[in-house]
Amino acid sequence: xxxxxxxxxxxxxxxxxxxxxxxxxxxxxxxxxxxxxxxxxxxxxxxxxxxxxxxxxxxxxxxxxxxxxxxxxxxxxxxxxxxxxxxxxxxxxxxxxxxxxxxxxxxxxxxxxxxxxxxxx
Length: 121
Description:
Elements: E1 11-14, H1 19-29, E2 36-37, E3 45-50, E4 53-58, E5 62-65, E6 71-74, H2 76-82, E7 89-90, E8 93-94, H3 105-118
Antiparallel strand pairs: 1-5, 2-3, 3-4, 5-6, 7-8
C-alpha cells in the first residue's frame, strides 16, 4: 500500500551564520542559537537537540520546527522537494518567506515551557 504525507504547515528558517538569521532562529522558532559551533571557522554548524540525539545543521540547511514543537535540520534539496509556500500570508508576505510571530506572548511562553519540559531547551 502507498501512503502520502498529510499536508501540514511548518515554520522553517534557512541557517546562515549572521546575526539576523540567528535572531530569527531564536525569536521566531524558539531554538537557542548559542549552540552554534565554530570548531571549524570556515564551516560553522548549529547543534540541534532532537529526539534522536544531537544533530548538526550546516550553513544553507533549513531548521524546521515540527508540529509538536520539535526541531530538526533539513538539507536544502530535500526541503525544496518536500515543502512549498503555504499561500498563507502575514503582513503581505508568505509564511515561507517571513516567520509568523506569535500573536500572544503568553502562548509563546507556554510553548517554551513545554519545550523545556521535553528537553528541547
